[in-house]
Amino acid sequence: MKKILFNLTDAELEKFIVDMGQPRFRAKQIREWLNRGAPDFMSMKNIPESLRDALDEVAQTLPVKIIKKLESSDGETTKFLLELNDGEQIECVLMRTTYGNSVCVSSQAGCAMGCKFCASTLLGLKRNLTANEIFSQILVAQWELRADKFNDKPIRPNGDANNGDVSHIVIMGTGEPLQNTENVIDFIERANRDMGIGWRRITVSTCGIVPGIDRLIEWGRPINLAISLHAPTDELRSQIMPINNKYKLNDVLDAAWRFTDNHNRQLMIEYILLGKKNENGETELYNATPEYAEKLSELLRGKNCMVNLIPWNAVDERDFASLSGNAVHRFQDTLIKNGIHTRIRRERGTDIGSACGQLRLNNAKRK
Ligand code: SAH
């Protein structure tokens, strides 16, 4: 198997290079390229071609390889399908916005949570990602942004706060981050230290693993927390999220309020709006009825939170239906009337199957 240079310590990398009969300073040059996310040795322009060829025979740069790259028609969203060293596949998504460049990273290959609306969990959990594998997703995105600059791709719109680097991270890709908490913490520490990404620009999204939330509190960094709630009662939530049988709605929210009180942060509540087809083939509201909007308001009234309403990205294998924009707005109007902060998440990259584990799933189906 090829040596993954990114996984080596500085001392190990130096030894590797010296053992190839090369001067030490090459190790430092190579490290700089690795830290910028160089996907291959050919990009390492200050390394002699003969050495690049020799390295290519025995080594690879990052612990992830890009096997597919899709760009949305508006050019704002790029989705990567990445392969890990053991052949597992993961996804990450780069979203260019007016306020900066956000990367959505995966924390596990697959997922064990079994949520009934989600594509990522259909093939089960394969394994946790290492901190290096999570970090590499940021590097892949950062390298892509360099290519934007090189190709004079306009950052949108001109003169905004987007300086062309990765500025925000959301741990909302495949997997449950709080089932891989220590590696996720390690990753976030490094993203902050090595890439200068502020705590407040990093969001961990969880389906509600209470001990994991408590671990984040103990760790103490003022990152953002997002809770995938998707239902305002235990009865409904248990039907679509098996984890609710283990950690009940109120216990999850209590843990979340402990977190936000500690850091004086606003909690993000994620709520996918789901419909269901009746026997006549018509779409009926599932968790998006006015009654559920009222119940959700009761849970959240007076709390420091923002409800992110998420239009469901259809997954063929899943027995739900997407709702019209009107239905989404009606649900939102009830929340607003009750004084709850809310916004509707803009769908990005649906034209490239960027939604939630679809690329990985479709690729696995083709195999
Ligand atoms: N396991 C974590 C993070 C990954 S999921 C969590 O549950 O938060 C990230 C978000 O995408 C979650 O809110 C999840 O419920 C949502 N999601 C999953 N499948 C979706 C789909 N098909 N359409 C829209 N959102 C989806």
Descriptive notes:
The protein is α/β, with parallel strands linked by helices and 367 residues long. The protein folds into two domains: 3-60, DNA polymerase, domain 1, CATH 1.10.150; 65-352, TIM Barrel (Alpha-Beta Barrel). Helices cover 36% and strands 22% of the residues. It is built from eleven helices and 16 strands. It has helices at 10-19, 25-36, 49-58, 131-150, 181-195, 210-219, 234-240, 249-263, 290-300, 325-337, 358-366; strands at 3-4, 59-60, 64-71, 77-84, 89-97, 100-104, 108-110, 125-128, 166-171, 202-206, 224-228, 267-273, 275-277, 283-285, 305-311, 342-344. The strands form four sheets. The protein has a ten-stranded mixed beta sheet, covered by helices on one side. It has a two-stranded parallel sheet with strand order 1-2. Strands 7-8 form a two-stranded antiparallel sheet. A hairpin with a 2-residue loop joins strand 5 (89-97) and strand 6 (100-104). Helix 4 runs parallel beside helix 5.
